[in-house]
Amino acid sequence: MAVRSLVTVLAALLAVTAASATARATTEPKAPADFVALRSVDPTIIQEIRYFTPHNFVGERIDGYRQPLCILTRPAAEALHQAQQRLLGQGYTLKVYDCYRPQRSVDHFVRWAKDLEDQAMKAEFYPNVDKTRLFEDGYIAEKSGHSRGSTMDLTIVKLPALPTRPYIPGEPLVPCFAPQGERFPDNSVDMGTGYDCFDTLSHTLDPRIQGQQRANRLLLKDTLEGLGFVNLAEEWWHFTYKPELYPDTYFDFPVSTKSLIQSH
């Protein structure tokens, strides 16, 4: 009987250990209370979250993007709402491509960048850049400001906003810096390149970008900078709201409404 009891106790302990291990494996980090879904602050801003789709430089949905959702710190979201109000009055709307980005997503980018054999999306996103130089040239890094929650990638769309057609995996790719009528269609105004174009033409004030393309970039830049946003000079679409709530913290909760449900 003693042996049988011991076996029963050991089995119970193993079951508890296995259950706790499973619980640990399925428990995801949550967002702090001062993170919000952008649509709860401004539902009029268009959301086209590219990393939830295969239409990005990796060519597949990125780890951590459970839903096509823009999550930001509340001050950044509220400032973006102010920018939207200014642009709506001029016949435009904002469109976000990416907002908060988990660290696991950045890790996915890093793994992809180190796999020199995978060049499936090169023809669109980095035609003129050797993949061996993505880290050295600053296109890929081990950390991203997006993971701190106050950085976003966005553009401007002329109203009324027409839909952007879905990307079909395997379709012919066109360089992201091709003329607007040739590159992948986007309902954005013409910014001179597509989003996430790994090329110096994406530098916000590149002197080769002139005319209406330059005016469009400056409309976005001037509108946002007037409200406390700072542009990354190498990417016309990349802005950070300052001061950041979390200037030194890189979060890893998934992009999902569940991440915003606070535990009690």
Count of distinct structural domains: 1
Sum up the overall morphology in one term. Answer: globular
User: Fraction of residues in helices?
Assistant: 25-40%
Average pLDDT, to the nearest integer?
A: 92
The value of Rg in angstroms is: 22 Å
What is the CATH C-level name? Alpha Beta
CATH topology: Muramoyl-pentapeptide Carboxypeptidase, domain 2
Task: Give the second-level CATH assignment, the architecture.
Answer: 2-Layer Sandwich
Structural class: alpha+beta
Strand content: 5-15%
E-strand count: 7
Number of helices: 6
Terminal CA distance: 44 Å
Largest sheet: 5 strands, mixed
- Helix-strand pattern, N to C? HEHEEHEHHEHEE
Which stretches are poorly predicted, pLDDT < 50 over at least 5 residues? 19-24
Which strand order do you get reading across the main beta sheet? 2-4-5-7-6
Protein model, in words:
The protein has 264 residues and is an alpha+beta fold. It has a single domain, classed as 2-Layer Sandwich (Muramoyl-pentapeptide Carboxypeptidase, domain 2). 28% of the residues lie in helices and 11% in strands. The strands form two sheets. Strands 2-4-5-7-6 form a five-stranded mixed sheet, covered by helices on one side. A two-stranded antiparallel ribbon has the order 1-3. A hairpin with a 6-residue loop joins strand 6 and strand 7. The longest helix has 25 residues.
